[in-house]
Specification:
8 helices
C-alpha cells in the first residue's frame, strides 16, 4: 500500500466516507448504504438452504474482518423447533436443501429477534422445495416487520431475476453471489465505523 493510499483512507474515514476500489463495489455499496436501516452493531447471521454458499459467505466475512453472531440459547432452542434434527446448532445456519419458503421465513424471523444478531444475510440456492419468488415474498414480509437489516442473495442468473425484482421493489439489498453480499455488508460496517469516528 502506498503512503498516498493510507493518507486517502484516513482522510475519507475521518470524513465518514466509504472508499471503494471497483465499479462493482461502488454499485454494491450504493445498493446497501441507500437502503440500510440504522445499524446497532456489526454481528452478522447467515442462513441458507445449503452448506456451500454459507461456507463461501463465512470465509469472505472473516477475511474482511467481519463478525459472525453467536446465537443466544433462546434462539437455538426456538430454531430446533423448525430445523432438521441434524442442524449444527450454530451460525451460519444451514436449513438444508429441503427448506421451504415457510422455513426461510421462520428462521429469518427468529434471527431478527436475537439480541446477538445485528443483521441477517439470507442466501437462497434454487431448489424445487423453495421456489425463488415465493421464498422472496416470505422473506420480504419478515423484513418489513423488523428494525434489523436483512440482506439477500438469490443465486442464479435468469432463474432468479423475478425474485430479485420482488426484493428490489421491496427496498431490500440483493446480490447474485454470497461474496458480493458479504462485501456489501462490510460496506455498511465501514460506514457505521466511519460515522462513529466523526462524532
Amino acid at each position: 500500500i502506498k503512503d498516498e493510499d493510507l493518507i486517502y483512507d484516513a482522510a475519507l474515514r475521518r470524513a465518514g466516507v466509504v472508499r471503494v476500489k471497483t465499479v462493482d463495489q461502488l454499485y454494491n455499496a450504493l445498493e446497501t448504504l441507500s437502503r440500510m436501516k440504522p445499524m446497532r452493531g456489526e454481528r452478522l447471521a447467515l442462513v441458507c438452504n445449503g452448506m456451500g454458499p454459507n461456507a463461501l459467505a463465512t470465509d469472505q466475512l472473516l477475511r474482511k474482518g467481519g463478525e459472525l453472531s453467536q446465537l443466544c440459547d433462546e434462539t437455538v432452542t426456538a430454531l430446533k423447533e423448525v430445523l432438521p434434527d441434524h442442524w449444527n446448532l450454530k451460525n451460519p445456519i444451514d436449513m438444508h436443501a429441503d427448506a421451504t419458503p415457510e422455513r426461510f421465513a421462520q428462521v429469518t424471523k427468529l434471527l431478527t429477534k436475537d439480541p446477538n444478531v445485528d443483521a441477517v444475510l439470507v442466501i437462497h440456492a434454487p431448489t424445487r422445495m423453495a421456489p425463488g419468488a415465493e421464498t422472496a415474498k416470505q422473506v420480504i414480509e419478515v423484513a418489513r416487520n423488523t428494525p434489523r437489516n436483512i440482506l439477500t442473495c438469490w443465486m442464479g442468473r435468469s432463474t432468479a431475476i423475478e425474485s430479485r425484482n420482488y426484493i428490489n421493489a421491496a427496498g431490500l439489498p440483493t446480490f447474485i453471489t454470497p461474496e458480493e453480499a458479504v462485501d456489501a455488508f462490510m460496506h455498511m460496517v465501514e460506514f457505521r465505523r466511519n460515522q462513529e469516528v466523526m462524532r
